[in-house]
């Protein structure tokens, strides 16, 4: 019964895999991962991040506890259409870009809201953060009569001096580490060499019946 072409082609590949030294898989995996990570770091545009801060201040008719609660609420509505609709005019970008590029965060201990924007252009990242913070402050001021809490600008977002995304050197290092790990896993499941199989499958020696009988006669 003849072998199929696929099976005949598979045998040389298995033979080559068995012939490779153990370190070859590790080196190949690390090299491939380093090349992939370096290419990702070079081809992916750098991202810049800028953050603006606003603080909730109670009026004479409110207490600090209510300011803390409204800061949490304003942090949740900062990325809603009611706020971003005004921010897009000052930032000069569509609402969809603001929704995908701007994030907010609040603190459980301080009545403060941070507005963080990310963009491939440093100046635009600062403009978007400041625009959303300004729109949020205006939204809070419009409702100050009922909430008795107003938002004030605490710190403006500045143009970032450097990217916040990983550098090509870092992505290369991460890729090399991941590739080396995959190479180690491939080393565990690779086909063994013929010598290794023979050595591993060699049965333990057992005395022949004749030698066993001679040994009993001498006792």
Distance between the termini: 56 Å
Low-confidence stretches: none
Whole-angstrom Rg: 34 Å
Number of strands: 4
Describe the global form.
elongated
Order of helices and strands: HHEHHHEEHHEHHH
How helix-rich are the residues, as a percent range? 55-70%
Supply the number of helical segments: 10
Which structural class best describes the helix and strand composition?
Answer: alpha+beta
Q: How are the strands of the largest sheet arranged? A: 2-3-1-4
Average pLDDT figure:
76
- Give the DSSP E fraction (strand runs of 2 or more residues): 5-15%
Main sheet: strands, sense, barrel? 4 strands, antiparallel
Describe this structure in words.
By secondary structure, the protein is an alpha+beta fold. The protein is 61% helix and 14% strand. It is built from 10 helices and 4 strands, in the order ααβαααββααβααα. A 4-stranded antiparallel beta sheet has the order 2-3-1-4. A hairpin with a 5-residue loop joins strand 2 and strand 3. The longest helix has 22 residues, at 22-43. The chain is elongated. The mean pLDDT is 76.
């Amino acid at each position: 019964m003849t072998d199929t072409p696929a099976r005949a082609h598979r045998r040389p590949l298995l033979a080559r895999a068995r012939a490779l030294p153990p370190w070859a898989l590790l080196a190949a995996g690390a090299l491939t991962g380093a090349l992939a990570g370096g290419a990702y770091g070079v081809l992916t545009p750098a991202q810049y991040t800028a953050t603006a801060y606003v603080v909730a201040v109670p009026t004479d008719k409110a207490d600090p506890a209510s300011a803390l609660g409204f800061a949490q609420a304003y942090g949740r509505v900062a990325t809603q259409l009611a706020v971003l609709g005004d921010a897009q005019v000052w930032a000069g970008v569509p609402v969809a870009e603001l929704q995908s590029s701007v994030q907010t965060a609040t603190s459980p201990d301080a009545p403060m809201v941070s507005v963080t924007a990310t963009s491939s252009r440093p100046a635009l990242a600062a403009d978007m953060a400041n625009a959303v913070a300004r729109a949020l402050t205006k939204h809070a001021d419009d409702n100050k009569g009922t909430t008795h809490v107003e938002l004030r600008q605490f710190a403006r977002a500045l143009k970032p001096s450097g990217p916040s995304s990983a550098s090509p050197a870092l992505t290369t290092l991460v890729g090399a580490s991941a590739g080396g790990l995959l190479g180690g896993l491939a080393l565990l499941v690779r086909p063994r060499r013929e010598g290794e199989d023979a050595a591993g499958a060699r049965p333990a020696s057992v005395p022949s019946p004749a030698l066993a009988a001679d040994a009993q006669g001498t006792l």
